[in-house]
Specification:
Layout: H1 18-29, E1 33-36, H2 39-53, H3 62-74, E2 76-78, E3 81-83, H4 92-100, E4 107-110, E5 113-116, H5 117-123, H6 135-140, H7 144-175, H8 184-188, H9 193-206, H10 224-227, H11 229-251, E6 259-260, E7 266-267, H12 275-303, H13 326-342, H14 364-396, H15 404-416, H16 427-439, H17 442-448
Antiparallel strand pairs: 1-3, 2-4, 4-5, 6-7
Helix pairs in contact: 1-4, 2-3, 2-7, 7-9, 7-11, 7-12, 7-14, 9-11, 11-12, 12-13, 12-14, 13-14, 14-16
């Protein structure tokens, strides 16, 4: 509170310079670069930071906290560059860009315009605050950038996870998949709860279908991308559950330093270190990657004339003169390959900062940024599986034989990407369906119907 920061903590600061110290901290730490975070991420950062400060261990005045809440309520959203955090001491650069607006500096978006922090406050009828001892540090020393990314991404991940179960169900109908591999008693002998959940969800989606088959009717076994859906999808759900638990704890924690304890002591510790979130986000990367990987393999089975049970090659109406959805599978392959690069764990890539005083960092914000990109890539891959299944069903004319729930979702898919009558570029349709999967609750409704 009255010393410099990091390696500079050995330098005492005069009482008359305490206010300037807090302001200089925001200015010096506001070194972020890159494309700004989405508005929803910044607003989540603000809410999470307020939730940490309101716990009472950070040494901040009520009026400063109330101004942060007023920014949220009035729709003043700081412009926060997405790159520059090493994840310890917390998310210094992103949170500094957020905090600068509180003192009338930096930039903020207000009613669709990007303004100076001072102008944004003025238009919202708010006054900047003059920070007192500890307040600058209390605003910037925490894990709320990686936490906000985690919160928003987990909501998207949950949607595409259920969507992947639905896309797999439609693919099974397109390929006349064997339902016996999803038998409840069979799945129960390997007692991972998530396996039971996925199996039950697939059976629920396919209830009433005339397109699924029994073991031995057409073949004895399906390929792994069909037969192992409960096991593979379940493992991805396990990474989701772990990440959700860690992010929930972190969202309701004090993550700055030093901490003002109720007994009156002000102790320096390491709660700013982002390692718990870094591990959780890197683990979540693997789960989301695998939803995309197995989805792409099912897409390959539908378009490949050697694997698709007699469907037209590449699901073209006139194979040869038309390529159908051949290149859609290329796009899916490209995305899953990109995901594998992004899945490299950032949490093991520590690099020292602040004159080696901060000699181990988490890179948790990088992990969180990467898992969100993986999630958006995976949504496109799953969208491609949906489109291929829709086309396969169109070519076989079996719509009336589908299960009621898969038929409902097929109608949604076709409203965004109608069946191909001839070759057509459908990149925009893939993007639109992927956005739908990331934001809609429709597939949840069918799962719970």
């Amino acid at each position: 509170m009255n010393t410099g920061f990091g390696e500079l903590s050995r330098i005492r600061i005069a009482d008359e310079d305490i206010e300037l110290l807090q302001l200089n901290l925001l200015r010096s730490d506001g070194m972020g670069v890159g494309v700004p975070f989405d508005k929803e991420i910044v607003r989540a950062m603000m809410v999470l930071r307020a939730n940490a400060l309101v716990r009472g261990f950070s040494g901040i005045r009520l009026e400063t906290l109330e101004l942060l809440l007023a920014l949220i309520n009035e729709g003043v959203t700081p412009v926060v560059p997405s790159q520059g955090s090493v994840g310890a001491s917390g998310d210094l650069a992103p949170l500094s860009h957020l905090a600068l607006v509180l003192v009338g500096e930096g930039k903020a978006e207000f009613r669709g315009e990007v303004l100076s922090g001072a102008e944004a406050l003025q238009r919202a009828g708010l006054q900047p605050v003059v920070l007192q001892a500890k307040e600058g540090l209390a605003l910037v020393n925490g894990t709320q950038a990686m936490g906000a990314l985690g919160v928003v991404t987990l909501n998207e991940v949950e949607r595409i996870g259920v969507a992947c179960d639905m896309s797999a169900s439609l693919t099974m109908e397109a390929l006349e998949g064997i339902i016996d591999a999803f038998d409840a008693e069979l799945l129960a002998v390997r007692p991972h709860p998530e396996i039971q959940v996925v199996g039950a969800r697939i059976r629920h989606f396919l209830e009433g279908s005339k397109r699924i088959t029994r073991q031995g009717e057409l073949r004895m076994q399906d390929a792994y991308s069909i037969r192992c859906i409960p096991q593979v999808h379940a493992a991805s759900w396990q990474t989701f559950a772990h990440a959700e638990n860690i992010v929930h704890i972190e969202a309701n924690a004090t993550t700055d330093n030093p901490v003002v304890l109720e007994r009156g002591d002000v102790l320096s510790g390491g709660h700013f270190h982002g390692q718990p979130i870094a591990f959780a986000m890197d683990f979540l990367k693997f789960g989301v990657c695998e939803w995309a990987n197995i989805s792409e393999r099912r897409t390959e089975r539908m378009v490949n004339p050697h694997l698709n049970n007699g469907l037209p090659p590449f699901l073209a109406v006139k194979p040869g003169i038309e390529c159908g959805l051949m290149i859609a599978q290329y796009t899916a392959a490209s995305l899953v390959s990109e995901n594998k690069v992004l899945a490299h764990p950032s949490c093991v890539d520590s690099i020292p900062t602040s004159g080696n005083q901060e000699d181990h960092v988490s890179m948790g914000t990088t992990s969180s940024r990467q898992v969100r990109q993986i999630t958006h890539n995976a949504a496109k891959v799953i969208a491609i599986e949906f489109i291929c299944a829709s086309q396969a069903i169109y070519l076989t004319g079996c719509e009336d034989d589908l299960a009621p729930r898969t038929r409902k979702f097929l109608d949604v898919v076709r409203s965004l990407c109608p069946p191909l009558e001839t070759d057509k570029a459908i990149g925009e349709e893939i993007e639109a369906l992927a956005h739908y999967l990331l934001t809609s609750n429709d597939v949840f409704a069918l799962a719970n119907e």
